[in-house]
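Private note to self, pasted from the team thread so I don't lose it. Backbone tokens:
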């Protein structure tokens, strides 16, 4: 339910669990305290899914201080606490919590999927730290002729060759394609290492999830890799990943996950100078994102829609779209 943002269903399940508490009290059940802890945890997770980060951080901080948490719950609480810390831009502390959660999950037999999800969270923390250090800006490759691009690449190759070899280690041999080298221009070594750490955790998560459960679990790690390429300004590598996930047959995705992938594909197409195709992907994604109340992703996608309309010369539509976007 959480993965597909079926939040009303999650709310109903929590309400049903809470209704069982009086019966456990009457029976003097030894599981009563554990039930309260689990309900507090799930309530905090639901708050996170709704974007109520300060509320979740307060609840999880209280839970994290309990010395009586069950070992299996401790891992989930630590991971959720790390997520709230990351949203508050406390990335180092978030990484520490994720590592605590990962160590706890490793002690539990048959819990490889949760280990994989925690690795994805670790990758997110490193990537978000890199973006915060670099600045929250969208990298758009300058438009230029092919021969100018090749000349710039040849001139700059000796300077960024060590950085290129480092990225090959984390992103694979595809980085040796000269068309991907534009992402290396003006890259900082420290920021690149953070991106590389994020990519490493995504790769480890994908490998573990692929072994542990259905193909659907691995899709989440591959989606993160696609978005990472976009964040680094390499839309050429991101687009094939988005398209492969949208046509995935081994693990059919729900409409919300498809909408999120279409939003990513639309952005990649915009960066590759294909606003017409981008418009189609974005228009399919927006109604679903609105229906599932993903305010943050919907707002970003509204911006992509305005950008696509502007590039296509639909100035009135682009202006109307800008007017609809929320103001800070």
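Design output:
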């Amino acid at each position: 339910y959480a993965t597909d943002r079926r939040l009303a269903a999650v709310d109903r399940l929590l309400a049903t669990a809470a209704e069982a508490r009086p019966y456990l009290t009457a029976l003097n059940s030894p599981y009563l305290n554990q039930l309260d802890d689990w309900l507090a945890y799930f309530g905090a997770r639901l708050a996170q899914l709704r974007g109520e980060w300060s509320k979740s951080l307060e609840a999880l901080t209280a839970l994290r201080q309990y010395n009586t948490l069950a070992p299996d719950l401790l891992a989930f609480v630590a991971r959720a606490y790390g997520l709230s810390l990351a949203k508050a831009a406390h990335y180092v502390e978030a990484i520490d919590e994720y590592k605590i959660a990962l160590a706890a999950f490793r002690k539990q037999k048959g819990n490889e999927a949760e280990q994989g999800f925690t690795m994805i969270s670790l990758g997110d923390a490193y990537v978000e730290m890199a973006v915060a250090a670099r600045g929250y800006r969208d990298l758009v490759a300058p438009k230029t002729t092919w021969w100018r691009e090749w000349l710039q690449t040849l001139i700059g190759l000796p300077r960024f060759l060590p950085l290129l070899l480092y990225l090959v280690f984390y992103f694979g041999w595809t980085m040796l394609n000269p068309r991907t080298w534009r992402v290396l221009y003006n890259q900082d070594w420290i920021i690149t290492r953070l991106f590389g750490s994020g990519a490493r955790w995504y790769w480890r998560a994908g490998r573990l999830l692929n072994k542990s459960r259905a193909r659907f679990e691995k899709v989440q790690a591959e989606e993160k890799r696609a978005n990472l390429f976009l964040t680094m300004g390499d839309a050429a590598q991101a687009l094939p990943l988005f398209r492969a996930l949208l046509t995935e047959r081994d693990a059919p995705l729900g409409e919300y996950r498809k909408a999120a992938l279409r939003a990513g594909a639309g952005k990649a197409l915009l960066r590759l100078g294909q606003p017409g195709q981008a418009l189609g992907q974005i228009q399919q994604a927006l109604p679903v994102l609105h229906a599932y109340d993903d305010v943050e992703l919907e707002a970003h996608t509204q911006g992509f829609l305005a950008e696509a309309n502007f590039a296509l010369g639909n100035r009135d539509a682009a202006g109307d779209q800008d007017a609809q976007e929320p103001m800070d």
